[in-house]
Amino acid sequence: DFKLEFGRLADGTVILADEISPDNCRLWQVGTDEKMDKDRFRRDLGGLTEAYAEIARRLGLTVPLDTQN
Known about the structure:
Elements: E1 6-8, E2 14-16, H1 39-42, H2 48-58
Antiparallel strand pairs: 1-2
């Protein structure tokens, strides 16, 4: 599941005022229920960078892992 925040302009146009990212979604691996979202950080499960990189890969995005930080 995920949350979205919307706003309305003066002319009545509805706008999306939030991002869609692992930071505001709860994502689990089907079959294993492995957490792939910010709950990895909250629950100190480790592998947050790798989980986010895997989500990006599945979306067809190329994101280099920064091993320095």
